[in-house]
Design a protein that fits this description.
This protein is of the alpha/beta class and 398 residues long. 27% of the residues lie in helices and 28% in strands. It has three domains: 186 residues, FAD/NAD(P)-binding domain (3-Layer(bba) Sandwich); 113 residues, FAD/NAD(P)-binding domain (3-Layer(bba) Sandwich), CATH 3.50.50; 81 residues, Glutaredoxin. It contains nine helices and 21 strands. The strands form five sheets. Strands 1, 2, 3, 4, 5, 6 and 17 form a seven-stranded mixed beta sheet that branches. The structure holds flavin-adenine dinucleotide (FAD).
Length: 398
């Protein structure tokens, strides 16, 4: 089977940033993507909050991200990831173009638009129902259309759609938008935008193409018909995690499926990291996705090098004594120094591991506390003690 050091799934801002950091750290990087590199930003017209660039189209920024990543020569592969499996401790990425074993994986598959789930939505997708203003806005020249949602994306994309449409209703279930103040001010000052407050879509109807929305006022329960030629749905996003399986137990997620990580982007599975919109996080934007990607790659690099080191000193040898101490405990540091001197003088081979920095190996060996002096045979723990001083080490190894 093909073996790679770092496999990154998804070439949006998070994945491309991970690729840059991974390659600069000297890792062998394989980047798997089933769409256009650049991710979600490819479908937005304006990006005004990527530092250093006052204004860019999403497509242009996505292209720049890709060229920047290409400069460091990761391998790009056009394929869809179908599944991830852990077999005998190895991490296997299963794609529609074969299987790859990875030393570390970064999940950067982002998020997709959430659907309304009302009657007519699925049937009229592509026949007046859209989730991408840049892709489909121009089809609605001089028409009346609707945007559903009240967050930043809805409010900003409504503004963009007024370039084509004569009128854009923005249908929101509350009585105020949840977007940034600047975006709201711009929308409210745009004479072509008309908010429809406290309303939800009951159904999308029309003979072939969309002709009207049936709306319900959540306060008065009043039902009205709103004639429109098209509807753009921006009611939030959901994580792209289908390759983790339904109700995946492989990797810890929130109830809604967002991947839970710590601040090193480590997921609940050793050697699997997550970055960008797929994570359970406060702000899903380009700037946070790229930051996550950088952290995930640096953490993956430490993981891979630590694993190599630990394997070579602890797991691969036929037989080994190892002293595992915490580098932040003065008594344990002294024990390590004394033991190093004893090992040098006596010629007894002892490996030294910082258990504070390598918590996973401490857990893996089932050690309850440090310091620990262990005897391993082919990576299997045979016996261990908690030595207080070098005399105990001497007694154990002789
Ligand atoms: C309309 C719109 C406007 C926006 N405007 C702004 C803005 O102005 N400023 C801003 O900062 N952010 C904006 N955002 C948000 C921003 O685009 C996202 O936060 C950012 O793209 C997240 O990056 P990501 O890399 O985590 O995920 P994504 O960009 O979602 O990239 C994930 C990639 O993974 C790929 N993928 C998914 N599943 C698989 C699989 N199984 N196998 C292989 N590949 C897979 C996808 O094709 C995609 O390319 C906007 C988003 C939208 C939709």
């Amino acid at each position: 089977m093909e073996k790679r050091e770092l496999v990154i799934i998804g070439a949006g801002p998070a994945g491309l940033s991970s690729a840059i950091y991974g390659r600069r750290a000297g890792l062998d990087v394989l980047l798997l993507e089933n769409g256009t590199p650049g991710g979600q930003i490819n479908v937005t017209n304006e990006i005004e909050n990527w530092p250093g660039v006052i204004h860019s189209s999403g497509l242009e920024l996505g292209k720049n991200f890709r060229s920047h990543a290409e400069h460091f020569k990761p391998e790009f592969r056009d394929c869809t990831v179908k599944k991830i499996e852990i077999k005998n401790g190895s991490k296997i990425v299963i794609t529609d173009k074969g299987e790859v074993e990875a030393e570390a994986i970064i999940l950067a598959t982002g998020a997709s638009f959430r659907k309304l789930g009302c009657p007519g939505e699925a049937e009229k997708t592509g026949a007046g129902v859209s989730y991408c203003a840049v892709c489909d806005g121009a089809f609605f020249q001089d028409e009346t259309i609707a945007v559903i949602g009240g967050g930043n994306v809805a409010v900003e994309e409504a503004g963009y759609l007024t370039r084509f449409a004569t009128k854009v209703y923005v249908i929101h279930r509350r009585d105020e938008f949840r977007a940034d103040k600047l975006a709201i001010d711009q929308a409210m000052a745009n004479p072509k935008i008309q908010p429809v407050w406290n309303s939800v879509v009951q159904s999308i109807e029309g003979d072939g193409f969309v002709e009207k929305l049936v709306l319900k006022n959540v306060r008065t329960e009043e039902i009205i018909d709103l004639p429109v030629a098209g509807v753009f749905v921006f009611v939030g996003t959901e994580p792209n995690i289908s390759y983790l399986g339904e109700n995946s137990s492989l990797i810890k997620q929130t109830r809604d499926g967002w991947i839970i990580t710590n601040d090193k982007m480590e997921t609940s599975v050793e050697g699997i990291f997550a970055a960008g919109d797929i994570r359970d996080k406060f702000l899903r934007q380009v700037v946070t996705a790229t930051g996550d990607g950088a952290i995930a790659s640096v953490a993956a690099y430490s993981y891979i090098t630590e694993q190599l080191h630990l394997n070579s000193v602890l797991i691969d040898p036929e037989h080994v004594f190892a002293l595992i101490t915490s580098s932040i405990d003065q008594n344990q540091v002294k024990l390590q120094v004394d033991t190093e001197k004893y090992a040098k003088d006596s010629g007894v081979k002892i490996a030294f591991v910082d258990g504070y920095r390598n918590k996973r190996i401490v857990e893996k060996l089932g050690l309850k506390s440090l310091p620990a002096l262990v005897e391993l045979r082919k990576g299997e723990l045979i016996r261990n003690i908690e030595p207080k001083e070098v005399a105990a080490v001497k007694f154990f190894v002789e």
